[in-house]
Amino acid sequence: MHYAVLVFDQNFAAVRNDVEQLRGTKRLWVLFSHMVGVRRPDINYYLFLLNRSGKQLDSVKAPGSELYLFDLSTSVLPTEIY
Question: Which of 16, 37, 56, 79 is most buried by its number of CB atoms within 10 A?
Fold first, then answer.
């Protein structure tokens, strides 16, 4: 099982680098939790990058948390686009 700690950061190059390091992962679970005070655009940016890097397979949402399953084993679009 693969996991990573992604930290919300205004440094977009660092965010892209975080996601880029996860490429090639067949099943990646991404959990956003304790999201009090987290801006929705920050979450959307991570989801945008993950969807550009692979395919979202599933998601579950509950108050204060969201869980997503991605397949990043094959890229949907080249990294140069984002």
Answer: 16
